[in-house]
Amino acid sequence: MEKGLLVVVSGFSGAGKGTIMRELMESYDNYALSVSATTRAPRPGEVNGKSYFFVSKEEFERMIDADQLVEYAKYVDNYYGTPRQFVAEQQERGKDVILEIEMQGALKIKQRFPEALLIFITPPSAGELRSRLIGRGTETEEVVNQRLGRAIIESEGVETYDYILVNDQVDTCVKKLHNLIQASHDRASVHMDIIEQIRKDLRRNEYAASNI
Q1: Rounded distance, CA 136 to CA 42, Å?
Q2: I want to staple 147 with a disulfide (CB 3.0 to 4.6 A). Which of 13, 126, 170, 188 is the partner?
Q3: How far is Cα 49 from Cα 119, in angstroms, rounded to an integer?
């Protein structure tokens, strides 16, 4: 069985990542969405163990010390991190594991796992980004402004991602995301083990032929 890919999806807060992830998981059965641990408070409708693992700051720091996280980062005064065991188990089952994480964590993933696929989701404009943040109705004006300020910083680091997806229409964006991931199964780097074996066999055959 082919090992699943490690896919990182990031984006500005308010870009619609959560909606896109839900649609992707409902539309296709070959993905596993990693559930992150976080120290932030749950939003209305979020379920512990499904939306996030909601933990205390002390518990999160214990997980860091025990090396139980693939990556972690601090964002707007809260920790976010990816539990290691879930990722490894799902990849071995052939599932493409998607990590919906912030840019800090994404860059750490790329350093530790160069083969990981990084995709950044953005709304079509800054005005639309602000409208979506306000429209959620879950954060104060101060937090909205913090997230917009963070977006300025993130916009300077997007070049490190493999792909950028503009989330204008959710259905279209979901299909493009699926197609990008599936095409990445055939990247040269993914199949270099096959190429190396072919090289060895060809050289062995060439050597055998030269000694006939």
Answers
A1: 14
A2: 13
A3: 24
Residue type at 78?
A: N
Q: What is the pLDDT of residues 106-163, one digit of tens each?
A: 888 999 888 999 999 988 887 777 777 777 767 777 777 777 777 777 777 788 899 9
All domains in the chain, ordered by first residue = 6-34+95-210 (3.40.50.300)
Per the document, the length of the chain is 212
pLDDT digits (tens, 9 = 90+) for 2-43: 889 999 999 887 788 889 999 999 999 999 999 889 999 998
Q: What are the C-alpha distances in Å from 21 to residues 35, 129, 167, 187, 188?
A: 12, 18, 12, 23, 27
Please answer whether residues 33 and 124 qualify as being in contact, where contact means their C-beta atoms are separated by less than 8 angstroms.
no
Gyration radius of the chain's alpha carbons: 20
**Neighbour count for residue 53 (Cβ, 10 Å):** 17
pTM: 0.76
Q: Count CB neighbours of 202 within 10 A.
A: 10
Cα torsion 71, 52, 30, 84: sign: positive
Residue (of 66, 14, 76) closest to 40 by Cα position:
76
